[in-house]
Design a protein that fits this description.
By secondary structure, the protein is an all-alpha fold. The protein has helices at residues 16-24, 30-45, 51-78, 92-95, 100-117, 119-125, 127-142, 150-153, 156-163, 166-177, 182-205, 207-213, 218-222, 224-247, 256-275, 279-304, and strands spanning 3-4, 10-11. A hairpin with a 5-residue loop joins strand 1 (3-4) and strand 2.
Length: 306
């Protein structure tokens, strides 16, 4: 039997497992994994790799991302931001597959598990780790929590750049080495910029829907032309990070492999982005940008340790 969504449309619900898997939005999880991979690789080269800490950092990052996705699903539904016929993936709460109460509980549980996974890291790294962990969880909730949230104020891009970049890479390195180096934070700019590119591709696709919902994203405020330029700048910035590190004698030349990934993959993506004229045309760019982020992080990790 088809489930009737709040918007009045009839949508055939998938199995419970598929509903929650979709709500977790697995395609977005690469943005959480990539900076942990880079931070762990830099710890390996420094002789400071600590497997339990790296594993806890990875688990915490993934859980915070899932919790943010659940929170976004729940809060956008409450605020009427999700409507039938949207270009993006079907939202579980909006489609009527999951009750708002169940999604709220899932959000709280996921963030609680993220906090629990970080307790060992707090014991190991002290109050700086606690501060970063709490700020990450709070930002995940604040992302769409009301009209003064990050997404509605147009601050989400800055949040993604910082927390999926230097904070995630630096945090992963710190909980292993119990120290922090400037090159680690510089390296963190790359995954942060590419994750921001994913968000920009999403916002380019959803510009009309976001405008109706009152979300003042940068694309809504300044138009798709500015959004396209920012996307290209993010990819170019990620390509420049390895040469900067090599020029400072902070990285081996092989790390330039990551720049090659950004230049070759990014050039094709930017061309497609500038050619896109409809929301549907922007849709494939989210997955392609996420794939490039994964390839970039692997190339960086390998190149850093050659």
């Amino acid at each position: 039997m088809a489930a009737s969504s709040p918007s009045g449309s009839s949508v055939q619900p998938p199995s419970a497992l598929r509903v929650w898997t979709r709500a977790a939005r697995p395609k977005t999880l690469g943005a959480a994994v990539a900076p942990v991979v880079i931070g762990a690789a830099m710890a390996v080269e420094a002789g400071a790799f600590h497997a339990p800490s790296a594993a806890c950092a990875l688990l915490g990052a993934v859980l915070i991302q899932i919790g943010t996705n659940f929170s976004n699903d729940y809060l956008d539904f409450l605020q009427g931001a999700d409507r039938g016929g949207r270009e993006g993936p079907t939202r579980a709460t909006q489609a009527g597959w999951v009750s708002a109460r169940a999604m709220r509980r899932a959000t709280v549980l996921t963030f609680a598990l993220a906090f629990a996974s970080g307790l060992y890291l707090v014991w190991r790294g002290g109050w700086p780790v606690l501060a970063v962990g709490l700020a990450s969880i709070a930002s995940g909730v604040w992302y769409t929590a009301g009209r003064w949230s990050l997404a509605y104020l147009g601050l989400a891009d800055l949040f993604v750049l910082v927390f999926f970049g230097p904070v995630a890479v630096g945090g992963t390195f710190y909980v292993q080495a119990l120290a922090l180096k400037a090159p680690v934070l510089v390296a963190g700019l790359a995954p942060g910029l590419l994750a921001t590119g994913i968000l920009l591709a999403n916002n380019l696709r959803d510009r009309e829907e976001d405008a109706r919902a009152g979300k003042k994203t940068l694309v809504v405020r300044f138009g798709r032309g500015v959004g396209r330029a920012l996307y290209a700048a993010c990819l170019a910035g990620a390509a420049l990070v390895p040469p900067v590190l090599v020029a400072q004698a902070s990285a081996p030349p092989w790390v330039l492999l990551a720049s090659g990934v950004a230049v070759l993959g990014g050039g094709a993506l930017v061309r497609r982005l500038w050619q896109a004229r409809t929301p549907a045309a922007f849709r494939p760019l989210l997955g392609r940008t996420a794939q490039m982020l994964a390839a970039y992080s692997l190339a960086f990790a390998v190149g850093w340790n050659v």
